[in-house]
Write a structure and sequence with these properties.
It comes from Hevea brasiliensis (Para rubber tree). With 474 residues, the chain is an alpha/beta fold. It has helices at residues 26-40, 52-58, 92-116, 131-138, 150-157, 159-168, 173-185, 200-203, 209-214, 217-220, 238-247, 276-281, 301-314, 334-337, 350-354, 368-376, 391-401, 415-426, 429-448, 454-468, and strands spanning 3-4, 14-19, 44-51, 71-76, 121-125, 142-146, 227-229, 251-253, 288-292, 318-321, 342-345, 359-364, 381-383, 405-407. Helix 18 crosses helix 19.
Length: 474
């Protein structure tokens, strides 16, 4: 159902429409950026367009207590036909949304303009590549926002080059392997990343409508008036930063949009309804393994059992955020047998958990938000990336570029593999070196996020663009 809630009686100087990709952590990350912009530009009205389910979650009373008054949600259709029966294909819901999204967003923008006033700028998730054409039709600036880590953007920009190699193929063996390495050495930011570490969407543009959409990114970004990235100049390889700036001179690295750096002080432990913080208070410093699989990722049931068996046997204190519908997969009696050294919860306040002094390692699926929250707190990672979006690429960056974590043996959870990784990080000398690297990266991040840093200046520039209705490349 198409609707904008509660049209405002206040007459703003500018009306910026934000268009979200309503899956995974994307809408929350974009809303966090819009919140910061709304507070910095109080004379500007922001309409936030996403699906009804997404907006209901984001703007529910419990989550909207810090919502500035100049942000209004606007619902667009999710593209799912009435009485549709899902086939079980993983990207089916995304593809249905993508297929209908251009028309649905146009309708939503028309409604927002009618109720609030003429739109002066579009700020959109960069995945929505059709947004540039909509902005052109409206004669307004288009500012896409890249929310994953910067490295994966290069993979999508150069996807044609990667496709050409994949089409040529080969007969396998060392020659083909070295050719793959040589190809990536010519792509800015990906010199240490192999083809098998790239997002599937960058390898196969025929896989789904979603893949096809992402593989247009390199062609449409030059149309953008500015490109916002949830990253820092200081974390970006010079070759990648230079290449992105050459393609989009209006590149703005505004810092991680989903978290505050430095992290704010922890709240009182008794305010955490999940009981995570009070439980962590009783644990020794840097002794706990925090396990989280994200909101979208699904691990095979046998891997969840293997992980549980490893946690039970090695007796390292653990806090496991495991969705309620997966709890039945745990071995019989697991909760009772591990009650003295572990805690399983259906949800955890992750940003606060990772900021707690008791956390010693984060076992993660390598989603961008989880990675950012870990490095912001100097927490080493044990990586079991799911083959989804940029998670595998992130794991490669964590282990081989930043060197602040390890991937589990064989890329899947096994009892022995998890035990080996936990002992490496928590006990062995190599783990101490990894932890030292994580602390060094945290310090670099704190410097990058300083009030006089590049990110602060780029954010100020973004606010000026929105407030002046002028774009960098006009």
């Amino acid at each position: 159902m198409l609707s904008c809630r509660q049209p405002t009686k206040w007459v703003p100087k500018h009306h910026v429409a934000a268009m979200a990709f309503p899956f995974g952590s994307h809408p929350l990350a974009l809303l966090n950026l819009v919140k910061k912009l709304a507070m910095a530009a109080p004379d500007t009205q922001f309409s936030f367009l996403s699906t009804e389910d997404s907006n209901n979650f984001l703007f529910s009373a419990s989550k909207a207590t810090d919502l500035p008054n100049n942000i209004k949600p606007c619902n667009v259709s999710d593209g799912v036909p009435m009485n549709h029966v899902f086939s079980g294909r993983p990207t089916e819901r995304v593809d249905l949304f993508v297929k209908a999204a251009p028309d649905n967003f146009r309708k939503g923008l028309e409604l927002a303009a009618t109720e609030i006033g003429q739109i002066s700028c579009l700020i959109t998730d960069a995945f929505l590549v059709f947004s540039g054409a909509i902005a052109e039709d409206l004669s307004v600036p288009w500012i896409p926002v890249w929310l994953p880590l910067a490295y994966s953007l290069s993979a999508h920009i150069y996807s044609d080059k990667i496709h050409q190699y994949c089409a040529i193929g080969g007969n396998g063996g060392d020659t083909e392997s070295s050719s793959k390495r040589k190809i990536l050495e010519t792509i800015p930011g990906l010199a240490k990343i192999s083809i098998e570490d790239l997002p599937l969407e960058a390898l196969n543009d025929k896989q789904s409508l979603f893949s096809s959409m992402l593989n247009r990114i390199g062609n449409v970004l030059p149309q953008a008036n500015a490109l916002v990235m949830s990253f820092y100049d200081e974390l970006c390889p010079k070759s990648l930063l230079d290449d992105l700036k050459s393609r989009c001179p209006g590149l703005l690295n505004v810092g991680f949009v989903s978290i505050t750096i430095p992290p704010p002080p922890l709240p009182l432990s008794n305010t955490d309804a999940a009981g995570c913080l009070s439980w962590l208070d009783s644990q020794k410093t840097m002794s706990v393994a925090y396990i989280s699989c994200g909101t979208v990722a699904n691990f095979p049931h046998n891997e969840i059992k293997e992980l549980a068996e490893a946690l039970q046997e090695n007796r390292i204190p653990f806090l496991w955020s495991l969705r309620e519908n997966l709890r039945g997969i745990l071995p019989d009696g697991f909760i009772e047998r591990t009650s003295l050294h572990g805690k399983v919860v259906p949800w955890a306040p992750q940003a606060q958990v990772l900021a707690h002094k008791s956390i010693g390692v984060h076992v993660t699926h390598c989603g961008a938000n989880s990675v950012c929250e870990s490095i912001a707190n100097g927490i080493p990672m044990i990586c079991r990336p799911v083959v989804f979006a940029d998670n595998v690429t992130n794991a490669k960056i964590i282990e081989d570029i930043w060197k602040v974590g390890v991937r589990v043996d064989g890329g899947v959870f096994t009892k022995n593999g998890v035990t080996k990784s936990l002992e490496l990080i928590m006990v062995h000398e190599q783990g101490r070196k990894i932890r030292s690297k994580a602390h060094a990266l945290q310090e670099l991040l704190l410097q990058a996020a300083a009030p006089n840093g590049h990110a602060a200046q780029d954010f100020k520039t973004l606010v000026e663009i929105l407030s002046s209705n002028q774009a960098l490349n006009n």
